[in-house]
């Protein structure tokens, strides 16, 4: 009897605290009709149907508004009013709408709050496991948000649900979690609740000292922080009295119950708690055989509970009346109240109150005692099995929820991993492409610089040749001037002097001698013509022809070395088709090649041939090596530089060509490019 009464007292307080009715604040009234609807819906003095209609009008208005944070807050207000009016069907419907809107908006705070509300809905039904499931969902969100106050509230709701199912170890664990997260928060009411639940669990597990410790702490918190919303001080005094009652310390229990009843507002502010304390006080007085206020006190408690439609409270009030009348020897009334208690227990499907009713019936009705005991054992076994299943179900819900969250987090992690791998690959490809592009541009720039340098060198070579040509032309002009001045003009002067005789003499002999000067004039004419023709020859006309440049270069090399160099060239070669870099490369190769030959002092006649083979330009250098033995050929060629890497590199990298070396026993070497 005492165990169940205490359970009702504590759990009734905790669950009612979760969604308590809010006191009306008329300052909310404005000209706007919607706030007025909400005020009327929250006013307990208004007719129930009117409150319901006003709340429905407010719901119809907000359901068509834009899904924003203000809209969701107003829908929560509507849900609270449905809960306070015990319209749980509309309450559930409204909360599910809020949950969908919060999910669409990714509003995790509203989602967690909606999960908590749905948990409260199922907590008021027989589906306690569903309530626990939604509490776990809310817990995960509050953990991520590090919202300690709301997380503590969820743990308290979990503990309450577990207590209803007699999962005391799970209930204690949830309450301890609540205390841990709430310890440094300013929400003293939730800290009070956590201590209250821990005291209740310790009492159920018969750890009375620990129970008194927690309830005493809860009482101190309530007094220090002036917690009066739900008459916390009276509730804690009642809970401490219950612990002493279970210890059979009835006088101490009576002292705490009477202290709790000194609050004159209790009967008006919270009549349900007043009825519980009154019933507990009557039971303690009954145990010490103080019948002075019995059974009036028990009947008063029964009337209060019946008026509030508190089914479990009515059942235990009737059981206590049955105990009283059985003690007084009135078996008829004792049996009557016990039967009514069992009937009401079956009506509300409360197994615990049914067990207490059956135990009382077995005591007051010996004839049917065996039947009642058999039914008691059956319900007790079923209840224990159901409690074990529920505890396992709670553990499974937490495990499966954790697994789902873990799988979701893993999927998100995999998604991000794939994303970052893809980004890394794309960045790597981009970097590789940019590096290749940069390298390509650098090569292009180097090539352009190389070509520019080659053009400059060709320009300098041609400029040198042009300068030499200008110098030769100047020399030729001076030579012609000298010839004209010293030779032609002198002879013309002599002829003129000879012809002046005709002014004084006109005899035939003089005329004959003068006529003979005509041949001399013709000779002078021929000499002048020859000089003029010499000025027009190609020898003195500069052309920027690469073939002429090669001829000039080879002549210079022959003059600078002891080699005799001949040049053979296919006239069909279009030197203009070659870029400057390749022209310069040919020049440098010839220069290095013949310098090596001269350095070794082994060269004789050398011939350089240029000819075309289809689309290929072939340069062939032939020469005879003198005074060389067979076994010395490789070393000599190496010393000459024919195998030096600088020549091969120029041929392969500048000319895009290949080399081949042919040697014969006649000591003749051919170098083909």
Automatic annotation (TrEMBL):
Q: What InterPro entries does the record tag this protein with?
A: Sig_transdc_His_kin_sub3_dim/P, TPR-like_helical_dom_sf, TPR_rpt, Ycf3/AcsC/BcsC/TPR_MFPF
- In the UniProt record, which is one GO cellular component term? membrane
Q: Provide the transmembrane region boundaries.
A: 416-435
Q: Where is the Signal transduction histidine kinase subgroup 3 dimerisation and phosphoacceptor domain?
A: 476-535
PROSITE patterns from the entry?
A: PROKAR_LIPOPROTEIN (PS51257), TPR (PS50005), TPR_REGION (PS50293)
Sorted alphabetically, which Pfam families does this protein's record hold? HisKA_3 (PF07730), TPR_12 (PF13424)
* Position of the signal peptide: none
Indicate whether Transmembrane helix appears among the record's keywords. Answer: yes
Q: Report whether Transmembrane shows up as a keyword of the record.
A: yes
The protein in question is named Tetratricopeptide repeat protein
